[in-house]
Amino acid sequence: MPEFNMPGNTFIVSDAHPEIMSCLNKQPNWDKFGPEPSSGQLNIADLRGSFAFDVITEYSRLFVDLGFHMGGGSLNLDWWKEDPVIELYVCDHPGESIESLVKGWFNQTVGKIQEMGKVPFAREDSMLNFGYEAKNTTIVEAWVSEDSVGKVVDKGYRAIATSWNRYHLDCGHGSWLSNFEGSSWCDPYKGWQKIYSYNPRAKIIDPAKQKLVLGGEVALWSTQSDETTVDRNLWPRAAAFAEIMWTGSIDPNTNSTKDIGKVAQRLTTTDSAWLHAGICQSRCSPCGASAIPSHLAYNYTLRTHYD
């Protein structure tokens, strides 16, 4: 399914259409205008701005998927507040504001996606943070926190769970900033156990709202990943995620929560298979540990500290 994060994080569009952009490549204080350089997002007051519609039209025809993800994440209103075109537009149109322009942009974009016969997908930023409320046919990607899924379904939307502190796979590698020795924004590293043990529906009591949680998504951004590291960052964590999503957390044979020790055995026995297939994934355990199941769990009763 195609996903284009619009109208934010669209600096690359300026290579072809700088005339439809706001706050391009602000320096040196780029961090005021975006989560990472280079800054730039679509000018939501530019009435020539059919670019988003053109993208939706073209890629809706190229992809057979039923959905189209319009993004909507990482918006920064400061970008638009410092754009002279938008400032003039708001002054010339009493009653308009940055917030109303954002809502109008999303309304038009959702309408275009539906016009193309697709189901709109959007990140929760656009649905919950700006007072914008789309029709509940929109499917919302809930990522800001583990509570986001509940907030999304409470509004009547269907949800895809992708909480950053559970399902973001690019975390745990430290900061990429040269003048900052701390961690990245989404540290620590999420092991497969943390991913497997998360149930997005656990805090949702209403069965009708539980059904609005359609599934989940693990996310791997390219900020610190490329073709040389993608397999190591994805596997086996994405495999653990796939199993829990496809089969659920309850063992049908025992009607109880799955034994994570048995999950560990299944994952570790696939280490060699991954490597033989040419996939350089992260190992689940030390070499040989999978042959002895007790080696895959820590026995706290045997731990003794000697001074």
Defining traits:
13 helices; 9 strands; two-stranded antiparallel ribbon; 307 residues; disordered C terminus; alpha/beta
Task: Explain the layout of strands and helices.
Layout: E1 21-22, E2 41-42, H1 51-62, E3 67-69, H2 77-81, H3 84-92, H4 98-115, E4 119-123, H5 124-128, E5 139-142, H6 148-154, E6 158-161, H7 164-167, H8 192-196, H9 207-210, E7 213-216, H10 230-234, H11 237-247, E8 250-251, E9 256-257, H12 260-268, H13 271-276
Describe the structure.
This protein has 307 residues and is α/β, with parallel strands linked by helices. 33% of the residues lie in helices and 9% in strands. It has 13 helices and nine strands. Strands 3-4-5-6-7 form a five-stranded parallel beta sheet. The protein has a two-stranded antiparallel ribbon with strand order 1-2. A hairpin with a 4-residue loop joins strand 8 and strand 9.
The low-confidence runs, each spanning 5 or more residues with pLDDT under 50, are 300-307
Counting H and I runs of at least 4 residues, what is the number of helices?
A: 13
The helix/strand series, from N terminus to C terminus, equals EEHEHHHEHEHEHHHEHHEEHH
Report the average pLDDT across residues: 85
Strand order within the widest beta sheet = 3-4-5-6-7
The helical percent reads 25-40%
The CA-CA distance between the termini, in Å, is 57 Å
Task: Estimate the strand proportion.
Answer: 5-15%
What is the total tally of β strands? 9
Largest sheet: 5 strands, parallel
Principal-axis shape equals: globular
Radius of gyration: 23 Å
Structural class label: alpha/beta
